[in-house]
Amino acid sequence: MTISRRTLLGTGAALGLLTACGSNTGRDKGSSPGGKVTLDHWYHQYGEAGTEAAVRRYAAAYDKAKVSVQWRPGNYDQQTAAALLTSSGPDVFEVNGPTLDQIQGGQVADLTALFDGVKDDFNPAVLAPKTYDGKIWGVPQVVDTQFLYYRKSLLKDAGVQPPATLDELVDAAKALTRNKVKGLFLGNDGGAGVLGGTPLYAAGLSLVTADGRVGFDDPAAARTLGKLHQLYADKSLLLGAPSDWSDPSAFLQGLTAMQWSGLWALPAVQKALGDDFGVLPFPKDGPNGKPSVPVGAYAAAVSTRSKHQVEAKAYVKWLWVERTDFQEDFALSYGFHIPARLSLAKKAAKLRQGAAADAVTYATDHGYAQPLLWTPTLQTAYQDALNRIVKDGASPDSELKSVIRKTKDELQRVKKS
Amino acid sequence: MTAPHRTTARHRPRPDEALVRVGRALRWVILAALALLFLVPFYLLVRNGLAAEPDITSPGWTFFPSTLHWSNVRELFDDPAVPMARSLLNSALIAVATTVGTLLFASLAGYGLARIPYRFANQVFYAVIGTLMVPAAVTFVPSFVLVSSLGWVSSLRGLIIPTLFSGFACFIFRQFFTGFPRELEDAARVDGLGYWRTYWRIVVPNARPVFAAVGTIVFIGAWNSFLWPLVIGQDRDAWTVQVALSTFTTAQVVNLHELFVAAAVSIVPLVLVFLLLQRYIVAGVERSGIDD
Amino acid sequence: MRRRVSDNTLWFWIFVGPFAAGLALFTYVPLLWSVYLSFFDAHNTVSPTDFVGFDNYTAMLRDGAFTSSLGTFAVFSLFIVPATYALALGLALMVNRIRRFQAFFRSVFFLPAACSYVVAALIWKMSIFNGVRFGLANTVLGWFGADQTAWLSTTHPPWYWLVIVTVRLWLQAGFYMILFLAGLQRISPRLYEAAAVDGARPGWQVFRHITFPQLRTTSIAVVLLLVINAFQAFDEFYNLLSDARGYPPYARPPLVYLYYTALGQGQNLGMGSAGAVILALIIAVVTVFQARWFGLGRKEAD
């Protein structure tokens, strides 16, 4: 028996049907009518209402290219990392980085030229981690910072002063813990994730030194991190809240007297609590200690896989360097952020009063940005160690020793390439 | 369906009437309690989805809230930030197309492996079941790069076609067809039908239960898959319902009632499919030899 | 034979060809690509140039986090496999024996299979086992005056296992119950009659000497599927325990660890692929060993 023509036709039809059902949803990359190129611009999903409409409005205002904004929910880092390997990724994307490996791997374009004449107007603390090899690889959009929120009334009821040292924080959290209200919320993992290097800087140390060596190879590190375990062991920490540290809900719902969260949460806190709250930096620890708050910035970067790098750079320059009105709107209209431009930060009226002013002062005086050399691998290793120190009461000495060893190896690796 | 048990039960020995009765009552109590326990999560989903935000987080959390806010459902569909209706449609399209395609390819292959003599049939079969042991997450990045180089990113094509070739489905079909009574096919063969027509006229009509069973498993998997649609469906127009759902869980500020109502809406179609088809599914699993 | 061999070959490929081609393109190409990557220093690239031999493999095997993730898998299987097996079998035995509302009970127990891990994890994390006063578990415990427990955040005792195991148990018990029900249907009533004649008491004795041995093939299939699925566990762990900053070092199964190694910003595809290959090999060995141990495939050798 041979294959009949009908058989072949049947099979072909079935295959054809399947291919046909995959009609393209209609994104054509490249040029659009009118000769303008189309640029894909990716943002991660912001929690503040109105942000998405705002970035779409900015994109629509650009007249040299058609900008298609993509608002990406969930797992943003994974999505961009995968997309950057292909040409179907974004032309312009915001990134909590770029990371050292993205820069060394040639995945992001050199944007140094965009900063001509305005470089000094960018907040130096957040510009530094975007700089490698003397070149700048991303334009900081806004400066975010985190600090400690506390309920004034609850502290007063418990007869507790706002803590100025880590020891005082431990005591305060313990004193504030009641039956159904905990003293302190550092995230559902007990603080290892969100605090990161902050306690080290509060002890007068750092993650990586300016000359690229391990910044916490010091007995003070173990001593400070050990105190975080005390918080956990005292049962002063709120754990297992339905929303995490980035959301002020736990603080507002009265589940905790103090919470570590971001500047972006300030409007919501102000609205709910009025004057009944204050903000503090992470308190200092030890003789060489100083208060510390983390600062960081999402940056706009250009993918080297983009077919329209020149246009993409021009667009980034237009939006994140030239259009200071949009930058101001983006920073201040949807939740609070500190503008990345010093000139804008200075005239931001909203940031000059009350708790916001305190927060900005902390960011200016005590802010530290995570160094570029602190790679995701190291972050995981350190975070694992910190988690074990906090929750399992693991010996800070031996945990840190293995992180230090790993850090030396990794710093060696990235220097080599 | 229930007939066989009746026979079984009637023939079962009953030495001590009282003991049997106690046993039966106990069985009922345990089953009812477990059933209730199994339903609690569904209830919580609906309860929290239709509650006002304070009802979810209030210190005096109660099992039964005072009022149900059906407006939450409208709020969800009206939310401009999340294209809920569109993503439900996408999910339905993708799940149906994936199910149809998987059934077609896997059943044909399963039949070929089970019935058509070929020197290397065993080797091909081992290559198929070998894929069952490779976790998909492992080949994720190369798969993505591959699909992207085909230009299929953000298209239904890219969301559907790469997922159509399920080693698991092929394995089940092959096992089922191996145990399929040969007499039927032999009769067809005598009538002069070739493999192709035997397959469509005799085999497929007699294999409906296994199609139902595999189809359901594939449909559930397609509806619930997350990572692939997240990365492939870059445009908002290509979001599936799971991706839309994730916008609520990854937001900086979590809106609990909207999250729960979205989750509830996302499982409604599946639950309906399940309730409607469950008779066939059960019959299918029972006859498919999945457990052989 | 009228049919020539070449005809059979042709027909074989007509039936199997489309599937095989798709499998080759969408599974084997990425798979071999991953194997290739595992021999390179592949940071943020899929076309690496820096060949490192087996370095990634040795580094991965020496990585304490990876080996401990294998331990996590072992613990997880020890919990989930017997628990699901016992619950599914128990449900099947009970549902099989009742006469009325059988379909109802079967539906209720099977229904969770329609729920995605994402949704189930959401209910478990936010509603049942959240660590604050309005979580269901804490509310119930509160009636008895117990303190609130942070189920997912407490490592001593490791309550998170309770959350992780119950969510999967809820999702999958019904499916395996159906498999057992199918197995029970196939047991000939005559065996029970014979047992009654021999004076076996209904209940334990009948179960031990008739029902359980007759369910042998079903049991083997169930255990195999449970173990393979446990190995590939990702969704509930990820959705229950990950946060914006990553994943805690406990209850981290291999796939979750590899996900963080190979995807995301620290995109170390070489190490990730090496870990994946190791994992796939382990799954293969375990499966083959299990199959041999249970004597699976004997039927096919007949």
Automatic annotation (TrEMBL), chain A:
Keywords assigned: Signal, Transport
Pfam families xrefs: SBP_bac_1
Annotated signal sequence range: none
Family: Belongs to the bacterial solute-binding protein 1 family.
Cited PANTHER family: MALTOSE-BINDING PERIPLASMIC PROTEIN, MALTOSE_MALTODEXTRIN-BINDING PERIPLASMIC PROTEIN
Protein name, per record: Sugar ABC transporter substrate-binding protein
Source organism (scientific name): Streptomyces violascens
From TrEMBL, chain B:
UniProt keyword Transmembrane present: yes
Residues annotated as domain ABC transmembrane type-1: 88-278
Keyword list, A-Z: Cell membrane, Membrane, Transmembrane, Transmembrane helix, Transport
Membrane topology of the entry: Multi-pass membrane protein
Transmembrane segments: 28-46, 92-113, 125-147, 159-177, 210-231, 259-277
Subcellular location: Cell membrane
Superkingdom of origin: Bacteria
InterPro entries, per the entry: MetI-like, MetI-like_sf
Main localization, broad class: membrane
SUPFAM superfamilies: MetI-like
Family, similarity comment: Belongs to the binding-protein-dependent transport system permease family.
Listed PANTHER family: ABC TRANSPORTER PERMEASE PROTEIN MG189-RELATED, ABC TRANSPORTER PERMEASE PROTEIN MG189-RELATED-RELATED
Name listed for the protein in its UniProt record: Sugar ABC transporter permease
Taxon lineage: Bacteria, Bacillati, Actinomycetota, Actinomycetes, Kitasatosporales
TrEMBL record, chain C:
Keyword Ribosomal protein listed: no
Species: Streptomyces violascens
Domain ABC transmembrane type-1: 74-290
Family: Belongs to the binding-protein-dependent transport system permease family.
Keywords in alphabetical order: Cell membrane, Membrane, Transmembrane, Transmembrane helix, Transport
Entry protein name: Sugar ABC transporter permease
InterPro entries found in the cross-reference section: ABC_transporter_permease, MetI-like, MetI-like_sf
Membrane topology: Multi-pass membrane protein
Domain of life: Bacteria
Keyword Signal (UniProt): no
Subcellular location: Cell membrane
PROSITE patterns, alphabetized: ABC_TM1
Main subcellular location of this protein, as a coarse class: membrane
Positions of transmembrane segments: 12-33, 70-91, 103-124, 159-182, 215-234, 269-289
